[in-house]
Structures are given as C-alpha cells and as structure tokens.
Specification:
This protein folds into two domains: 176 residues, Rossmann fold (3-Layer(aba) Sandwich); 124 residues, TPP-binding domain (Rossmann fold). It is an alpha/beta fold and 330 residues long. It has eight helices and 15 strands. Strand 13, helix 7 and strand 14 form a beta-alpha-beta unit. Helix 3 packs across helix 4 and helix 5 packs parallel to helix 8. It is globular. The protein has a seven-stranded parallel β-sheet with strand order 5-9-4-1-2-3-10. Bound molecules: flavin-adenine dinucleotide. The site of flavin-adenine dinucleotide (FAD) has 27 residues, from helix 6, helix 7 and helix 8.
C-alpha cells in the first residue's frame, strides 16, 4: 500500500482539464499529502491525453499516471472503470479523488465496487482524522445538514469533490510520467458512444460557474426569461432555473438547479422570483453569497439568503442589469 494521494483528471468535451481537478489537487496538497507523508499524483485517462500531464504538474502533481487508449475516447465509463480499477489494484494508492461530475458519478461507484473501497460523493471539505483516515464533509438531507463522514482504516479511500468548493492554487512541479497500458478485452466495454453533439453556448457551464442567476415560476413565460439571461450575461454568470420554471416550459431542463437538477456552489447565486423550496435549496444552498429578489416579503427564500430585495422583478431587473453592466464591463 503506497502513501500516494491520487487526483483523477476530469476532462471537458474539448479535451482540456476541468477546473475542479486543479481545485482537488490544491486542496489535497494543502490538507492531506503533507500530513500522511505521501506524494500527490495525477491520473489521466482518455485518448490523446498524454500531453496534458504538465498541467497537473502546475498544480503540484509530482507524478502523473497516464492511460492513453482509443477505447477511453469520449469518456467511455466502462473503459474508465476498467482503467482506474486496474491502476488502483497495481499501485494501491492511499486516497483517490475526482471531481463530482456526471462522468465520475457514473464510473467511480463501479471502480469502488471492483477494488472494494469506501466511496463518498460530493465532498465540500477534505481532512484527516488523528490517525490519518480520510474525513470529509458533504451536504445531506436536501442540504439541510452538513454531514461529517470518516473512512475506516481500509485503503484506498475514495471521494468526489463538489466543483467550486476549494481554491485552485499553483505549485509548479515537473511530474514524473508513468505511462500505463491496460489490457482491455471484449468483456470490459459494454456500451459504445455513437455520437456526441455539442450544444452551442457561450455561457459558462452551470456546475462550474463562479456566478449563477436563476429564475423561477414568477417570471411567467419563456419570453420573460430574457430578463434572467440579460442579468446573467451582465454578471458573466450561468443562467439557472427552478423545476417549476422548467416544467412550465420557460427554459430547458439542463438549467434546473435542485434535488432533481444540478448542484451548484458558486460565489454568487441570484435567485429571481424563486420561493425557496427545500428541493431548490438542496442544489444551491452551498453558494457563498445568495441574493434573493421576490415580491412577496414572506417568501421563504428571504430566510435563507444573505441579501434580499423585496419588489417586482420586472421593475427591478432592467435597472439592476444596467448597473451591473456599468460596474463590471465598463
Ligand atoms: C421530488 C421533488 C423534486 C423536486 N426537485 C426540484 C428541483 O430540482 N429544483 C427545484 O427548483 N424544484 C424542485 N422541486 C419543486 C419544488 O418543490 C418547488 O415547487 C419549486 O422549486 C418552486 O419553484 P419556484 O420557486 O420557481 O415557484 P413558486 O414556488 O411558485 O415561487 C414563485 C415565486 O415567485 C415570486 N414572484 C412571482 N411574481 C413575481 C414578480 N413579478 N417579481 C418578483 N417575484 C415574483 C412569488 O412571490 C413566489 O415566491 C421538486 C419537488 C419534488 C416533490
């Protein structure tokens, strides 16, 4: 069993590394590696990914394990499962971390099953117990509570981390590259990605955005959602929505924040005409600053926000958007 802490890189559609990987590397270095006297390592899985290793070194990876294989193209979860499980069995790391992305939610539980490891998802804090077992915090019960969970003394200890929970911090290293080949056979890959169609959007992805502006049922129509898009653009924020707004057809499902939508953790969350139901709060309650705009002074959201503006969105949003534009873009 080694003392290595692994961070598995999450890749975007364009093949670049997601910010959450740098956040995880930085927090693992600050909180875990020194205390257990171990090494910080990156893991790169994919097709044509070898050239990305130096980027992990920029955030402190001293070693990078690379599995570069055509079968891992398009983030095939079957391939990722086999590749990571084989690497773990061979090198026996102490801790394995990945970003809490859709892909990780798909393949990491399968890896944990194969290597018989404990796994917690969506951590917002990483730490160690006095005897150096991984201890994490995560939201539970619709974000009403923060749960602290520690691993038993059984390695590896595996977790995913929520994007935007930790500060990325450079720590330049020249990592040793360990190229690994994995023997895939016909029983390893059960699904095949036939096609990937990228949606055209200049907006930042919701789960990684530093700022989010969301609209609720109070917007009243798809046309009125332009107020949300305009304010989001002024803030350089990602637009989001409640389930009620999505169900009413005002905007697409991929904008939904909440229990049955996406979990976000931006520095700023602006909730416009949103009542503040617990199912919505569970997806955005960890935002650093929450601003609510609602015409009902008794709306529950006002008990959960940092700043509340009571008024009609149709009167408030146009001048607010203009002011934000002036402040941030002029
Ligand atoms: C199993 C389950 C899962 C769910 N998952 C989710 C989820 O993932 N995400 C989610 O969001 N919800 C989810 N819901 C639904 C959730 O319970 C709420 O119904 C929903 O969040 C309410 O959305 P809303 O705040 O937009 O609408 P409402 O509760 O109808 O609130 C609209 C608000 O707009 C305000 N308003 C109206 N007009 C104006 C105006 N002109 N100016 C200012 N304010 C105005 C009103 O005062 C009101 O507070 C789920 C529910 C269940 C049962």
């Amino acid at each position: 069993m080694s003392n290595e802490v692994w961070v598995v890189a999450d890749l975007k559609l364009d093949g670049s590394i997601r910010k959450v990987t740098f956040e995880a590397l930085s927090e693992a270095r600050r909180k875990l590696v020194g205390k257990i006297g171990g090494n910080l390592c990156g893991v790169l899985l994919g097709s044509g990914v070898s050239n990305l290793a130096p980027e992990l070194g920029k955030y402190g990876a001293e070693k990078v394990y690379v599995v570069d294989n055509e079968l891992l193209k398009d983030s095939n979860p079957d391939g990722y499962t086999k590749a990571l499980a084989d690497l773990i069995k061979k090198y026996e790391p102490y801790i394995v971390i990945a970003g809490n992305t859709n892909l990780a939610e798909d393949y990491l539980p399968r890896v944990a099953g194969r290597v018989q490891a404990g796994l917690t998802m969506d951590s917002i804090d990483l730490d160690l117990t006095d005897d150096n077992r991984l201890k994490i915090q995560r939201y539970s019960h619709s974000s009403k509570v923060i749960s602290t969970q520690e691993f038993l003394d059984h390695k590896p200890m595996m977790t995913t981390v929520r994007p935007n929970s930790f500060k990325p911090e450079e720590d330049q290293k020249d990592p040793e590259i360990v190229n690994e080949s994995v023997d895939f056979n016909s029983e390893d890959i059960w699904t095949n990605v036939v096609e990937i169609k990228a949606k055209k959007s200049d907006l930042p992805p919701l789960t990684e955005a530093d700022r989010v502006v969301s609209g609720g049922r109070g917007l009243g129509s798809e046309e009125n959602f332009k107020y949300i898009y305009e304010l989001a653009e002024a803030f350089d924020a990602a637009p989001g929505a409640t389930r009620a707004a999505v169900d009413a057809g005002y905007c697409p499902y991929d904008m939904q924040v909440g229990q049955t939508g996406k979990a976000v953790s931006p520095n700023l969350y602006v909730a416009v005409a949103i009542s503040g139901a617990i199912q919505h709060f569970s997806g955005m309650g960890s935002s650093k600053v929450i601003v609510a705009i609602n015409k009902d002074p008794d709306a529950p959201i006002f008990k959960k926000c940092d700043y509340g503006i009571c008024g009609d969105l149709f009167e408030l949003l146009p001048p607010l958007t203009d002011e934000v534009k002036k402040l941030l873009q002029d």
